[in-house]
Amino acid sequence: MNNFEFYNPTRIVFGEGKIAELDRLIPADAKVLVLFGGQSARKTGTLDEVEQALGQRQFGLFGGIEPNPRFETLMKAVEKVSAEGYDYLLAVGGGSVIDGTKFVAAAAKYDGDAWDILTSMGGKVEAALPFGTVLTLPATGSEMNKGSVVTRESMQAKLPFMSELVFPQFSVLDPVKTYTLPIRQVGNGVVDAFVHVVEQYLTYPANAPVQDRFAEGLLQTLVELGPQALETPEDYNVRASLMWTATLALNGLIGVGVPQDWSTHMLGHELTALHGLDHAQTLAVVLPAMLNEKFEQKQAKLAQFAERVWHIDQGSDAEKAQLAIEKTRDFFERMNVKTRMSDYDLDETAIEPLIESLTQHGMTQLGEHGDVTPDVCRRVLQAAL
Question: Where are its TM segments located (predicted)?
Answer without folding.
Answer: none
